[in-house]
Amino acid sequence: MLALGLWGLDRGTMWRDEGATFQVARRSVPQIIRLLGRVDAVHGLYYLLMHPVLAVRPDEVTLRLPSVLGAAATAALVGALGSRLARPRVGLWAGLLYAGTPFVSHYAQEGRSYALVAAGAALATWLLVRAVEQGSVRGWVAYGAVLAVTSLLHEFAVLLVAAHGVTLLWSRVRWPVWRGWGCAVAAAGVVLAPLVVLSRGQSEQVSWLRRPGAAEAEALVRAFAGPGRPVLAVTLLLAAVAVPAPLPRRGPLGLSAVALPLVVVGPVLLFAVSQRQPLFLDRYLLFCVAGLPLLVAAGAERLLGWLPWRRTVVVAGVLAIGAAFAVQLPGQRSERLPSGRGDQPALVAAQVGRLARPGDAVLFLPHYERRVALFYPHDFRGLRDLTLAASPAASGTLYGRDTGTGELLSRLGRLTPGDRLWVVWDTTTVGGRWFRAQRADFAKWRALNGRCREEASVFVPGGAVSRYRCGQGTVTSPPPPSPR
Fold this sequence. Notes:
Blueprint: H1 2-6, H2 16-25, H3 29-36, H4 44-56, H5 60-85, H6 88-99, H7 102-108, H8 114-134, H9 137-153, H10 159-171, H11 175-200, H12 214-225, H13 229-242, H14 255-273, H15 291-304, H16 310-327, H17 329-335, H18 345-355, E1 361-365, H19 371-375, E2 384-385, E3 388-390, H20 392-395, E4 401-402, H21 405-413, E5 420-426, H22 433-437, H23 439-451, E6 452-460, E7 463-470
Parallel strand pairs: 1-2, 1-5
Antiparallel strand pairs: 3-4, 5-7, 6-7
């Protein structure tokens, strides 16, 4: 997993969410805390953890390296769970299967919290198994602490509690186990409660999500089990074998009793809740993936375990996993291309750096496109931001506070025919219904086109840079192009 994570780690551009991590984590701790009171509280602990990391070296490789290490740790923990609950070769197969999943590789190379959340969930599951086996107070304290930290990294990890509860019900554990588990969960809940209250007040950040249906459910299955039909079919078949014919228990908890709730309960609960309050997104459920390779490895063990040639069986399993990886290799390669995440703000910034000169003015549409300048400030050095009223750090916001339309008109009016204005705009939103509903940004666009004339544009994936000439009197410009 570590080798896969390091393969092509520097894609040459950050995408939108990674850039948020990059620019927020580089603020001072008081500035980060101020921001969290307004937005992104759900990522607060992650930003604080990334603050010292990016202080060492602020670049894209350093930004993604903690996720690579988190994914590698998760693969190791999946292997450890398989070995503890079944036998070493089951653990080997499960760990390799997890590492080779394209969905896992995607978030192993992204500067966000999801790979670390998956590592925390796998560790909490391993600690649950150990605590049930040993029944010590220290074991439950460790479990509760890891559960709390994991949920603070992303509060949807609390769905892990439901999965573990189903595991204990399935295994018919005794009262002392329930008592220890309940105390650990209650303590984690107390720690998590302030974040839940704070994040509920910031729910507009996920207002863009829609109620999931069959298409979203199928996409999640393919993400977990493999996008290609052959791999998907074999994966689901082996998992189906493991459920009705579980491997013999090696302790109080069986492998199927741990793995099946882990992969099923969280997605089902989030899907059901999202029918009323849409919150369903595949990356929020990355921590559930670990249950599937455990089931697949258990199914393979059930089918092949009767064979007498143990080493041959182990090698055959590894070769089969290698074949599955080879089938999905094109998808793995595409993940490592600069276009693997859609938008490429580095290309937009590079165009500004190539075309603009010190003293030119710049304007961002919508306002969040200022992110390009925040991610790659060297390309915007010497340019005047026409709409910035307060910087992101000073205003406690992600992208800064803009001036009103009246002030923008005044600033545009002070531009002379010799001044150049560069407009950095998002081609996926400008011109669409959503953009027209954003009153401040739409008013900004109207003010721009009432005072200035577009002369040329350069388009790159997800964005564009347009040169405007102002100070020539009122002009009428056509409406912005439809989103590409």
